Amino acid sequence: MDDLVLLHAFPLDARMWDVPGALTPTLRGHGEPDLDTLASQVIAELGDREVVLGGCSMGGYVAMAVLRRAPERVKGLVLVDTKHTADAPEAVRNRHAMADRVEAEGVGEWLAEAMLPNLLSPNASAQARKLVTTMILEQRPEDVAWWQRAMAKRPDSADVLGKAEIPALVVTGELDPLMPPEIGRQLAEVLPRSTFVEMEGVAHLPPVEQPERFAELVERWLTTAGL
């Protein structure tokens, strides 16, 4: 799977992925918050390669931004617990409020405590909880705030996804409180050549809660899709 690129969720990093052979960059913001900045970073890392591009949550938003800017570089999509729509006004306010608090107080236990119930299911192992907590606490405050402000102004991506005549795998966690399965189904309906999978017993981070099962799912789909 050396042509598979996977982009991480908020507020995590590349350690969330355990998919052998995949390229898993850690996204870093700079300048004016905008997901196009992260898309440019990803495109630069690809070199001349055409890849299967995947992302979880925020990583999915970045994958859509890459597809908008350089569709010729993407031969397949893996979108995990993410959505194509822009944020509603209340969600935008909540993102800016978190960004303001992180800038004022830094990243601390409060952020992990606020995020964990939305990211992991009650079924999650102690190992998964420790990994996610560690990733959250080790993020730079400036990145966390930047990511939130960038996501708050992302556009609706239905237009670019609707024109993407490439195989797409849409995965959603059965127990995801942030993006329940219905959101994933709506995303799959926008894509012309999509396969939708609901993973039982997991929440917002299937690759963390059930890494082996997730990796097997992706590998099987790649084979079936001829990628």
Automatic annotation (TrEMBL):
Pfam family, one: Abhydrolase_6
InterPro entries in UniProt: AB_hydrolase_1, AB_hydrolase_fold, AB_hydrolase_sf
Record-level Gene Ontology MF annotations: hydrolase activity
Matching SUPFAM superfamilies: alpha/beta-Hydrolases
Location of the AB hydrolase-1 domain: 4-216
Alphabetical keyword list: Hydrolase
Residues that span the membrane, as ranges: none
Residues in the signal sequence: none
Name of this protein: Alpha/beta hydrolase
Species of the source: Lentzea flava
